[in-house]
Amino acid sequence: MNESPAVRDNVTTSWQDAPTRRLSAAGVQFAYRELGPNTDVPVVFLTHLAAVLDNWDPRVVDGIAAKHRVITFDNRGVGASSGSTPTTIEEMARDAVLFIRALGFDQVDLFGFSMGGMIAQVIAHEEPQLVRKLIIAGTGPAGGVGIDKVTRISYLDTARGLLTRQDPKQYLFFTRTPNGIRAGKEFLARLEERTNDRDKAITVRAFRAQLKAIHRWGLQKPANLATIHQPVLVANGESDKMVPTTNSFDLERRIPNSQLVIYPDAGHGGVFQFHQDFVQRALEFL
């Protein structure tokens, strides 16, 4: 097990070169990366459906890591992390808390994208003392509009990707306008910038487990989001087909101390399409 970053010196590296580390907690070997200055409150990234460490946009990671320690990790059973992938968002949240506490932190900021934003909501509700601020993007509340249809949309656009020999994220994350198509290609190219120490792809079994968890989240009764007292930044594109953008407005309306940014001519991956603006807003918020 590597020495906890909580007691190490400053970390100065780029996302492209950040080494993959291992941390053992409750029988699970978590794979993670960290970079940025040795700040007291790190920003822990919670990732999206089917994602591994290499699916984070380098511009977003490096941008936030310019001012804050950033820690990303593979969920249990995903990528290089061991164990079986949970089939509920609540279990994933408990795993994230396990990982954060094993690193030695008593308080963190969270950035959750898509499924990660669902996980972040649960952590803020169940472990309020652990979370200082939240950024949630491309996500929605339990029982949110259209979330139970993520499985169908994911499979359809995966098939479209195979037929057109394109990455499904080109369809899932971005609009089909000229701006959206260009932004998708640029995003996918950035994901390939790291060439050494690449992560393992998600397995079909883990992917299906995550889909089941998101489907269950979409069928749940609405939660009392008034219990989330932390400052929250909600972000999305105006045309999110995976987690319909109406859910972002719903989150902003129901979370007491929240603010909302909606990006024009953008979809689920709006924070990646408008990464420069998003990073600036995130740094100001944090």
**CATH homologous superfamily descriptor:** Alpha/Beta hydrolase fold, catalytic domain
CATH architecture: 3-Layer(aba) Sandwich
The total count of strands amounts to 8
Q: What Rg, in angstroms, do the CA atoms define?
A: 17 Å
Alpha-carbon distance between the two ends: 30 Å
Average pLDDT figure? 92
Helix/strand/pairing category: alpha/beta
Summed up, the helix count is 10
What is CATH's topology name? Answer: Rossmann fold
The shape is globular
CATH class bucket? Alpha Beta
Protein name: Pimeloyl-ACP methyl ester carboxylesterase
GO molecular function, one term: catalytic activity
Pfam family, one: Abhydrolase_1
Domain AB hydrolase-1: 42-271
Summarize the helices and strands and which ones pair or pack.
Layout: E1 21-25, E2 28-35, E3 43-46, H1 58-65, E4 70-73, H2 89-102, E5 108-113, H3 115-126, E6 131-137, H4 150-164, H5 169-172, H6 178-190, H7 204-219, E7 232-237, H8 246-254, E8 258-263, H9 270-273, H10 275-285
Helix pairs in contact: 1-10, 2-3
